[in-house]
């Protein structure tokens, strides 16, 4: 990550001024991060996720203090809402049923460590992008927001999908590199590298804290 190009500009505080910026916190929830959640129960190493959440907590505190909008996104599913394409994908991989994650009725979709407060935007989604099948864009536009600072889980999936869709919708997108994580070695850095080359600027938690201080 240290070798990836990060934005260093004296104008950065103006770029993410609280009046027109939202901190977007993606999928910090039980099944993706808690030891008792689905990934924890099947033995996935959550250490990188927890390190990223530590940074996300700092960002949320800084955003709230500065008056920036905080948007919390999470996956909320039922068997009835499971995507046909996703079911087919996993079945063809020989792992039918593996897509059953973040269920609304068993606690898997619950927020973990970071919780909404009055005035926050809350978005429930079925798959990866926070914009697909939601009113997220409309809520951002209604608040005059044109810039997103994105963090959360996982770098290669929901962070990537949401960041690309935001860019396609004409938002300015910053991804906080040390406040995101992936579950497999190499995926985090390679995903950041691909996004930085195409649609986002990379920054660090310390950069954002300083800009919002």
TrEMBL record:
Keywords: Hydrolase. SUPFAM superfamilies: Isochorismatase-like hydrolases. InterPro entries: Isochorismatase, Isochorismatase-like_dom, Isochorismatase-like_hydrls, Isochorismatase-like_sf. It comes from the Bacteria. The keyword Nucleotide-binding does not apply. Residues 21-207 form the Isochorismatase-like domain. Pfam families: Isochorismatase. GO terms for molecular function: isochorismatase activity. CDD domains: cysteine_hydrolases. The keyword Glycoprotein does not apply. Signal peptide: none annotated. This is Cysteine hydrolase. It comes from Sandaracinobacter neustonicus.
């Amino acid at each position: 990550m240290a070798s990836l190009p990060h934005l260093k500009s004296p104008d950065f505080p103006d770029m993410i001024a609280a009046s027109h910026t939202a901190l977007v916190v993606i999928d910090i929830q039980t099944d993706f991060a808690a030891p008792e959640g689905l990934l924890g129960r099947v033995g996935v190493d959550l250490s990188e996720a927890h390190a990223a959440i530590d940074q996300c907590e700092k960002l949320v505190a800084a955003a709230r203090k500065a008056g920036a909008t905080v948007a919390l996104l999470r996956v909320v599913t039922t068997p009835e809402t499971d995507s046909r394409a996703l079911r087919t994908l996993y079945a063809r991989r020989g792992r039918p049923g593996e897509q059953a994650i973040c269920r609304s009725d068993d606690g898997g979709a619950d927020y973990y460590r970071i919780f909404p407060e009055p005035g926050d935007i809350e978005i429930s989604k079925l798959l990866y992008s926070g914009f697909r099948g939601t009113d997220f864009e409309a809520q951002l536009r209604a608040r005059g927001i044109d810039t997103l600072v994105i963090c959360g889980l996982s770098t290669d999936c929901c962070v990537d999908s949401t960041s690309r869709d935001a860019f396609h919708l004409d938002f300015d997108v910053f991804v906080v590199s040390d406040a995101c994580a992936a579950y497999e070695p190499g995926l985090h850095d390679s995903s950041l590298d691909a996004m930085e080359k195409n649609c986002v600027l990379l920054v660090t938690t310390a950069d954002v804290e300083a800009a919002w201080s």
